[in-house]
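Hi P.,

Sorry for the delay on this. The queue was packed all week, but I finally got your sequence through. Input first:
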Amino acid sequence: MPMNFSGASFGLLRVPTRKPGDAAITLTGPNFDDPAESGRIRAYIRQIVADPFVREAIEVSSGSLARDLAKIEDGGSVPFSRLRRVAYAVTKYLLRMSSRPTPFGLTAGVAVARFGGPSGGEPEFRTGLPAVKAVRPAMDWLLAAVHEWERLPDVRQRLLLVRNDLATSRGDRLILPYVRAAHGKVTSFEVSVRDTEAVRVCMDAAHRPVSHAVLVAKLRESFPGVAEDTASGLIDSLLEQEFLVSELPPPPDSADPLGHVIDRLEADHSRTRALRDIRTAIGAYAASPPGEGAAGLRSLVSSMSRLHSCERPLQVDLRTGVEASLPDVVLRELETAVDLLWRMTSDEVPDHYLEYHQAFVERYGLGCAVPLGELLDPARGLDAPATYVLPASSRQLTHRSPPADTPRRRRLAEAAMEAIGSGHEEVVLDDESIAALVRHDGTSRPAPDLDVCVTLLADSMAEVARGEFRLVLAAGLGSIGPGSFFGRFTAMFDGMADRLRQIVSTPDAMERGAVPAQLFYQPNESRSGNVIQVPTILPHRVAVGMYADRGRDGVLGLDDLVVTADTHRLYVHSNSLGREIIPMPFNMLNPYRQPNVARLLGEIAFHRAGGVSAWSWDGLADLPYLPRVRYGRTVLFSARWLPGPELRDSSLSWNGWREALRAWRERWSVPDHLEVVSHDLRLPLDLTAAPHQRLLRRELERDRSAVLAEPPGGGSPGTGWCGGFGNEIVVPLTGRSVTPPATPPPGTLDWPRRRHHPGGEWLYAKLYLIEEHQDELLIDRLPALLERIRPAIDHWHFLRYRDPEPHLRLRLAGTPDTLSGHVLPTLHDWVAAGCAAGSLRGMALDTYQPEYVRYGGEKAMPAAERLFHADSESVVRQLRLLRDGMLTLDPQFVAAMNFMEIARGLGGDGWAARYLDRVPKGGHHAAFQQHRRAAVRLIDPAGGWKALAAEPGGAQLVESWRRRTEALADYAAELESTDPRARLDIVRSVQHMHANRLLGIDREAEAHALAMLRGVLDADAQRRRFAG
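Then the structure:
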């Protein structure tokens, strides 16, 4: 089996700045909860922070804690409650610094790991290199000052301004759907101003960067007699509300944010001089070795606070003084483990994204390009997907219950119970268990690109070289895009940006000519700006909701982007480039903190290939204990315990709680050493030490969702290979591509916006009823309605849908007069009778928007709609045959036969070969293999259907296709000049709509029917090949 992932030749090595032994003092500390021990607690605190490195790390990370420490160190009076909090806090800091590799200030840093050994030499771990601090002002500190200065007349008149491309017109208002949080409060609502002619002049003039003075002149030129102060006041108001944005805030890719601001201020001004002094002090502090800069740091923070007060005014990252060269066997092991997880990952997409894709296709059709800003507008478009919060989406999500994979779940439950019952610490996956757990074979889907985070365990580098090591995958596995973990650390390493660019620009990653584009945006909270400070990596950039010159080469804005869809996913296109783009943020900001436009762009990029899920116990997460899971040398899942409710009982005495802990540990065989896990924070504890027991109790009471997990690998082997430090290595992996459905070509992106509202040439009714009654209505009740209205309509068709309530969509074509004067009253009476009888819940009229692009264009649409009519009539007959028992075949078999007829009639010459080439053998191929003999006998690629006609009801089934065959021929004639690739897309769309009518909304059943069609075509092709 080919490997589906290829690891980069480098990784980001993350290590804490202290070793586990450095936290030994925490095992024997005083009782932090006893006021009588205040003296010992003070001495304990002083002993911990006597390490200048630890003291400086705390100064960097928590200004309030540092101030409390200063009082304690000076012997000042401190209330016991605060002393207690400080003791717990410094204990956690020390434990974190000695164990957790996640970079944070000076508690942990980053280095480079290379694979393949240095210049062909032996693997090694190097120490003693210079440790380098990367220091810049925190963005919440800097932006607070910047936005204050923007309001000053002497500052704003020096600045270039540009239109915020998120602004959009709605009626007589100009709307801004997303603005920054103000004064620490999250702002997730839109703001608006009257869309006056003066506002439009101002916004139009600022489509490219323009000075304040030029905007004033433009307004006065357009409105003679307007005073300069009045014009300036309008501009200032638009700037204050962020309809205009200035160049003063540093962009996320600025290498010197403070220098960016200084260069745009008046040179000889007190604020500018103060910033230059701060910049100099930052440089001096950055140059000081870690552990020797606390005094300079305090002076620097004091200077910064005089300009603006902020809890953490500095962003400090650390490049540690180590490097690692590792053998390729480590990389191959990681690739193998991720490949297995990927084959275990379901192709199900999140509910909110699936619903949004379906809504897009329903509203706009396939291949239609919709401006991104319009799509996200709640009035003109779909609004943002459900669950989006900046701003809050109006869309509601109906949660689906994913199809239960009962055999897989049973196999997992057996493995967990066997481990628990036998006392085994781990489940080891073998070929048999893997075969029962994988969901696809890895050949039918493109593998995604991602960063993977892994801990390497070995007692020496020699053991690593011999392959005697363990890998432990992070609980969350990694990121959804390659390079995301590197983010703000990229600039700390020479050549790193070039390496990341090469990874995301490989032919496999950029199939079909897609262009990777770096995504920049303005986060809602200024503090988040620290996470998204990433240097320029890609030549193309998407900049939305922020200052940018979108007329420059390579700079794409919201107005340039359109969204389109095929049957599988959404795409983003650039109008100016005429190509698909892949937005890449290169940061780890939580999606819930991203503006909706940025989050949607990121999700569209992610779902190009889907993701790789970490190990899942598939419904067993509530078990009190889950064992470690290992595959080869890789731990896929670390053992985990759920603390019993007695451990969260604050009413227990200390002795009572310790007894509860002892009993719980004995019952579940809990080891001495484990980690308390709260969200993504992990704190190592020794459960035999009373101070750690108290810390555990405190953490469980503070976070009711906290769980307990074993240390990496259960603590063995150790980390001797890297000098005893904890470690994580982040490795970018590039996924193998397969031949995917082609991106809709840019030429198809223009779409007619013709809509048929009630009262026109189409009457579109939604008939609400429960899904189980839909076939009965179609078979028994609908024909009576059609018989009464047939003289008044030209044709009709139906679809099944959920929005989210299940309903049938009935579309009737005719003249406006007859539809309104005869058909609608008749429909009213029919629906009223159905509601009275309990077969219908109600009806709603809606606007019918034909999917012109999906079905070959406006000229071909009438023929397509006549085909929909013929298919609807055929399906009603087929449903009756199935219900009455005249046709005894499985409905999925019947659907596969219909798929064959549709493809034969519509696909054109050579369609079968194109179908096999374009549609890979997927995970549902087992449906064909299970029924191969019957499928090959009954599903006739030649169209004679002799074997089918001999089956009960077979002849009636073939007869039900007669009128549809004629409609297929007429429609095929309209598509004669259509590109064969696009024509096959149309075939698949018609097949999908047929499946909707015959099988209902059942993706699995449709996929099985398609798999049977493909299997028969493949078998026929092989027979012809060997026969000829």
